Amino acid sequence: MTLLLNAITFHEPNQLILALMAFSGAYAMTFLIETPIYAALLRKFCTPLKAVALSGLINSITLPVVWFVLPPLLIRNYLLFFVVAELFAWLGEALLVKLLLEKVGWKRALIAALAANAVSAAAGLAVAFVLAPNV
């Protein structure tokens, strides 16, 4: 986790490369986890292919903010960063689901985004603190 937090602040030239590599892995993991959840919970409103596009688009908007905008603002307090980042991802993705799938109600959009982000956040925490605690 320390390497990741240092990489995000870009104190050394190679840290930008490390941050982009870590981001790519996080994006892939997030996409692979969240896409089937969105597809299942929004199946009445979109085809599986549209759910893939939806997940890719909304994660392309929210994940860079979580990785590159919020950390420099909140880097000193990981708990605060985590709470703000997850609230942003959840509510931002719910808003995007609602805007992109007009027939989806707010309740369904909020539930789908909450489910997708809860599972991907848990996986991210497992990777960060259990599987790769020194990264």
Write down the secondary-structure element order: HHHHH
How much of the polypeptide forms β-strand, as a percent range?
Answer: under 5%
Shape: elongated
Largest sheet: none
* Count of strand segments: 0
End-to-end gap: 5 Å
Summarize the amount of helix as a percent range.
over 70%
- The total of helices stands at 5
Provide the structure class: mainly alpha
Please tell me about this protein's structure:
This protein has one domain. Helix content is 84%, strand content 0%. With 135 residues, the protein is mostly helical. The radius of gyration is 15 Å and the shape is elongated. The chain starts with a helix and ends with a helix. Helix 1 packs across helix 2 (13-41), helix 3 (48-74) runs antiparallel to helix 4 and helix 4 packs antiparallel against helix 5.
Summarize the SSE layout with pairings:
Layout: H1 2-9, H2 13-41, H3 48-74, H4 78-100, H5 106-131
Helix pairs in contact: 1-2, 2-3, 2-5, 3-4, 4-5
Summarize the structure in short:
With about 140 residues, the protein is mostly helical.
Distinctive features:
disordered N terminus, 135 residues, single chain, mainly alpha, 0% strand
